[in-house]
Specification:
This protein is mainly beta. The chain contains no helices and 13 strands. The strands form four sheets. A four-stranded antiparallel beta sheet has the order 4-5-6-7, with no helix packed on it. The chain is elongated. The two termini are about 35 Å apart.
């Protein structure tokens, strides 16, 4: 079992805890913590490919020059439960929150939260007066192709969902 440590509550920490479950009793045994720089909210395991996918629900990643979360792919060691990062990609939108695969496994859908922070832009109205106009980040719904090896392929489509 993979559990995210979340850094929003004290004590502040990140990471992925790995647990082993006794199938007969349901008891959990702590194994170890890995990737102390990641906190995630959504994960999905592809048992056939031996892959763990997680969404790093963050607003900013250090190696990207714009607001973005990340999607990670990890190889699973079925004997030990260890995970090894194979890839990560910036989603290009803040706070990715949900992922799922098409029934045939050829596509991946990723959705994002709309963030409450607003930016105020000034626009001229019909009378030529400057009016402050609050703008917020759109929530994106993305469709990715899946590669045969379990990695993420090309971004095929994006639907921007404007807040109501």
């Amino acid at each position: 079992m993979y559990v995210s440590l979340w850094d929003h509550n004290p004590p502040k920490s990140k990471g992925i805890d790995i647990y082993e479950m006794d199938k007969e009793t349901g008891a959990l045994k702590y194994i170890k913590m890995v990737h102390d720089d990641i906190a995630f909210n959504m994960s999905k395991i592809d048992s056939d490919k031996g892959f763990l996918y997680i969404l790093n629900e963050t607003e900013h990643v250090p190696d990207v020059g714009y607001s973005s979360g990340r999607l990670y792919g990890f190889d699973l060691d079925k004997e030990t439960g260890d995970i090894t990062e194979r890839f990560h990609i910036a989603t290009g939108c803040r706070s990715p929150d949900y992922l799922d695969f098409s029934d045939d496994g050829k596509y991946l859908v990723v959705s994002h939260h709309s963030c409450p922070e607003r930016v105020t832009k000034f626009k001229k109205n019909a009378e030529g007066k400057w009016i402050p106009t609050p703008v917020i980040n759109d929530s994106a719904l993305q469709l990715y192709a899946m590669n045969a090896d379990g990695s993420i392929g090309e971004l095929l489509d994006v639907v921007d969902l404007e807040p109501a």
